[in-house]
Automatic annotation (TrEMBL):
The lineage of its organism: Bacteria, Pseudomonadati, Pseudomonadota, Gammaproteobacteria, Alteromonadales. Residues 10-148 form the Ketopantoate reductase N-terminal domain. It comes from Hydrocarboniclastica marina. Its EC number is 1.1.1.169. This is 2-dehydropantoate 2-reductase. Pfam families: ApbA (PF02558), ApbA_C (PF08546). GO terms for cellular component: cytoplasm. One of its GO terms (molecular function) is NADP binding. One of its GO terms (biological process) is pantothenate biosynthetic process. Residues 174-296 form the Ketopantoate reductase C-terminal domain. It comes from the Bacteria. InterPro entries: 6-PGluconate_DH-like_C_sf, 6PGD_dom2, ApbA, Ketopantoate_reductase, KPA_reductase, KPR_N, NAD(P)-bd_dom_sf. Keywords: NADP, Oxidoreductase, Pantothenate biosynthesis. Pathway: Cofactor biosynthesis; (R)-pantothenate biosynthesis; (R)-pantoate from 3-methyl-2-oxobutanoate: step 2/2. Belongs to the ketopantoate reductase family.
Length: 299
């Protein structure tokens, strides 16, 4: 893509989820990647057996995309966005954040509130195989909504594009509720997959998971209710089990990070629950155990 052309969508920090969006959006849109790698030849494998092959090149500089999808890890979001925007001749028309957990969205809004900002919470599952293929390990719901007033004008257009690409997408007026609800699911799956070194579905029925899930969900419910996000332990547990079943073959992003020797997002998931509990005077021993145990794996 030449500098005179503007991609409809640009993926900043394209990991498994970012590449999934890139491949599926490309059926109807121009897509460019921004990251640290060179050209990518990609094979997307669906659980049903279908395979799609695509090739992408990384764009080091030039025009910003129409819409930037930021799929970096939470701890790297502001740095990656800042670096990309400094290289572009102008900012993108809109930015969509895909980060897990809570906290990084506020940091981006403090830095880039002059740009239309939106966020996504998705339960789509994707991972890379040893030979580099991208596996769409499970379909889910994608919730999209604005983080600032100017972002609201872009929600319907971007949501329609996501739907047309095959993502079940729902628009949210308060995306922070969806982000918190996704945090609750991640808090009940990701750390366990690291400690048991298994895909999502293998958690179900494992004694380590089954013994700790009910007290974990109780902690999540109490912190949620005190934070203004009504949820019961029973509902949280049911959602965790449903997602683990629907994405049974998926290797969680946190386990992918540990296997690759990268930092994890445990601090903005279970760690965020622990910090919220401290601020509210609520004990969260299971969340603390999970956060400490995952952190110990990456030291």
């Amino acid at each position: 893509m030449s500098a005179s052309n503007i991609a409809d969508y640009g993926i900043i920090g394209p990991g498994s989820i970012g590449l999934l969006w890139a491949v599926k959006l490309r059926a109807a849109h121009s897509v460019a990647l921004w990251g640290r790698s060179g050209p990518v030849g990609l094979s997307l494998e669906f659980m049903q057996g279908e395979t799609i092959s695509e090739s992408f090149t990384f764009e080091p500089r030039g025009q910003a995309p129409g819409t930037a999808l930021v799929t970096t890890k939470a701890y790297d979001t502001v740095r990656a966005l800042d670096g990309a925007i400094k290289r572009w001749r102008q900012p993108p028309r809109a930015i969509v954040l895909f980060q897990n957990g809570v906290g990084s969205q506020d940091e981006v809004q403090q830095r880039f509130d002059h740009i239309p900002l939106l966020a996504v919470s998705t339960t789509e599952g994707a991972n890379r195989t040893a030979d580099g293929a991208l596996v769409h390990a499970g379909s889910g719901l994608t919730r999209l909504g604005p983080l600032n007033a100017s972002g609201a004008a872009w929600a319907e257009k971007i949501g329609a594009d996501f739907c047309a690409a095959g993502f079940d997408t729902r628009l949210e007026t308060d995306i922070r509720i969806a982000l918190w609800e996704k945090l609750l699911i991640n808090a009940g799956i990701n750390a366990f997959t690291v400690l048991l070194d298994c895909p999502n579905g293998a958690l179900l029925g494992h004694s380590f998971f089954e013994d700790r899930l009910p007290p974990l969900c109780y902690e999540l419910a109490v912190v949620s209710q005190a934070s203004g996000y009504p949820a019961t332990a029973e509902i949280i547990e049911a959602r965790i089990r449903t997602v683990a079943e629907k994405t049974a073959g998926n290797i969680s992003s946190m386990l992918q990070d540990v296997r690759s020797g990268r930092p994890t997002e445990i601090d903005v998931i279970n760690g965020a629950v622990v910090r919220a509990g401290i601020a509210l005077g609520i004990a969260t021993p299971v969340n603390r155990m999970l956060a400490d145990a995952v952190a110990a794996r990456t030291r």
